[in-house]
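Residues and backbone
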Amino acid sequence: MVHVDPTTRLDSLIDNYMSSRRRPSVVSTTAAARALTTLMTACPLTGRALEDAIAASAVRHGHAVAFDLAEARALRARRAPTSGPATRLVIRYQPD
């Protein structure tokens, strides 16, 4: 059995993803990362390192890059429920 380095496999998957895109197009780092991590659940790169690898391959293949991975993470974090009970601020008007 041949052992393939996970980073080498990831680079190959990223290049295949870019080759499958119509040219010229804008590549979303969020969409690419989602597709890649679906295929490779034990992805050796995450976050900014994965985004940089996607962007480098996209540029080599002649695509523009939409760096939206950080925005998607921030949006998910804002949508995530907070720990503990939600508190409401209630202001009541009391005339003098």
In short: Residues 6-20 form the longest helix (15 residues).
